[in-house]
Structures are given as structure tokens and as C-alpha cells.
Amino acid sequence: MEVFVHHIYEYEKGIRNLVLHTTSDENMHLIIGKLNNRGIAYKIYEIGRGRINVFFGSPECVEVIERIGKRNLVDYTPEEDFMLGIMLGYDRRRQCERYLNLKNSFSKTA
Question: Would you say 16 and 86 are in contact if contact means Cβ atoms under 8 Å apart?
């Protein structure tokens, strides 16, 4: 939970607009309570094996995640994966490289 609390700190200080935190589903009620108490938008997906992905941050960013609507990150298209990486604040150049690699792999299997 220390990492989760640090993610909240980074969001509230404006370092991040969107956070993705993966944790045990046992923490879900505590996480929901903390986010609700701070008025932070969030979306939680159960991803199996007792794990959850918690997306939280600006309402607009969380809405994008909801509209993508995919529970598992492996189901994201290369374009969705690219958008998510940029929204999470990952290095833009590396995201471009990742996108091109995913797109090449994706087109070979299609």
C-alpha cells in the first residue's frame, strides 16, 4: 500500500494525470475508500489470480480508460497501448518504438 499512497501523492502534486496500480484484490475496499475520500476518479478491473488493475487520476483520463473498456492490457490494440503509455507519462520516444514493434507484430498475425 506504500506504493499506492505514493501514487496518490504524485497525482495530487500534478506529477501524473493517470496512474495504473496493480495489486491484490484484498486491497480493493481500502483503495476505493482512499480514492473516494479524496474525490479521485478511478476504474478498477479484476484481472484474475486475485489481482486488480486500478486506474485513477483526472476524470478525463479515467473516462478514456472506461471507453476503451478492455479488462486486460494484453487485449489493447497497438493504438490503445500507445495512448495508455502516453497518458501514464511513459517516455514518448520509447512509446513510439513500442507502438511500431507492436504494430509490426500485430499486422503479421492478422
Answer: no
